[in-house]
Amino acid sequence: DGGITQSPKYLFRKEGQNVTLSCEQNLNHDAMYWYRQDPGQGLRLIYYSQIVNDFQKGDIAEGYSVSREKKESFPLTVTSAQKNPTAFYLCASSIDLRTSNNEQFFGPGTRLTVL
Amino acid sequence: AQRVTQPEKLLSVFKGAPVELKCNYSYSGSPELFWYVQYSRQRLQLLLRHISRESIKGFTADLNKGETSFHLKKPFAQEEDSAMYYCAPALIKAAGNKLTFGGGTRVLVKP
Fold this sequence. Notes:
The complex is a heterodimer. Chain A is an all-beta fold. Chain A has strands at 4-7, 10-13, 19-25, 31-38, 42-51, 54-57, 64-66, 76-78, 87-94, 105-106, 110-114. Chain A is built from no helices and eleven strands. Chain B is built from no helices and eleven strands. Chain B has strands spanning 3-5, 10-14, 19-21, 24-26, 32-38, 45-49, 60-64, 69-74, 83-93, 96-99, 105-110. In chain B, the strands form three sheets. In chain B, strands 2, 5, 6, 9, 10 and 11 form a six-stranded mixed beta sheet that branches.
């Protein structure tokens, strides 16, 4: 697959700790996204970024933070303020956010478990 | 508020039978519409988009603006169609084009 990678694949953390999930893409895409996937709820958008040094909150941003210092990287920090952090996290990228029919390319995901 | 509903969580059909996955949306504007698919042990990927009017792997999706639906259909299901399917409208705005995903429908095609 290549293109967009996420690490680690599995992550365990103790309650009260912050943890950062990595997302890297070599597709030269401007736009990047973070989703949370829970059974029966589909994907919910946490944060997205249209361009370097810019990002916006999605539908469920509380308890999360992001940065976009480089075009190819969009790390997500799950903070201790996130009340229910155990989930599967997906990162995606697309050429940009302005084209109406642009395709989003997804990473393999990171499964976070809070102990 | 924008909402996407996929009423069936699980669809189980026999090989060769038709399959239809329902998707209803409620948007204030005119969204672009996509179906994404996730096969076992693979990444989520685009299946088809309405704007392309395409048929992919035998699947087609019909937009019904009156009913605000974008159902996905295939006349003869194959075992390799077993997967999780997500309907995803995107409301195109100046601030950016964001997808909203439905809850997903798992399709199981039995031999």
